[in-house]
Amino acid sequence: MPTNKKELRLKYKNLRKELSEDEIEEKSLAIANQLITLPIWDKSYYHVFLPIEEQKEVNTEYVLHLLSGKDKEIVVSKSDFETRGMSHFLLTDNTRIKKNEYNIPEPVNGLLVPSQTIEVVFVPLLAFDTLGNRVGYGKGFYDKFLSECKPETIKIGLSFFEAENQIEDVFESDVKLDYCVIPNKIYTF
Known about the structure:
Radius of gyration: 15 Å
Shape: globular
Structural class: alpha/beta
Number of domains: 1
Order of helices and strands: HHEHEEEEEEEHEEE
CATH superfamily: NagB/RpiA/CoA transferase-like
């Protein structure tokens, strides 16, 4: 069983490649339906990643519908590949979204939201374990961003697949998840 981040990245990128568009839509909708049951809906500021379609990420459009239906403030990010930092913008009807060179959909401009204001973060990932550790693409954007949030910010991973038992090479700087939601189940850490 692969248990280090490098092996897990490879394994889950390959598993995702096998998913059809229909499967991605179906599983993404199931994940959004699971989210409804979480005790997170008394907050105001929710950060959502916009999926990289080419990487077959969870389609967060359903999460966006859920949030706007509950009249929440939705925050999306723009990545700076030089500093590995992210700036966060309020998603409004006027927000223009454009893909960057890595095919990540990003806001072109808008109202800046400080990391400290964000109360719930939906976190993209490739893999996660039963302890709440996650494996991303390895660039460290989310670890940096999550460490800038308040300690009580709720971190929710979204995944198409079950948890691994344990990721071996976890660093002190890796920020753990509070929940991870998959199509048929919620993990609480």
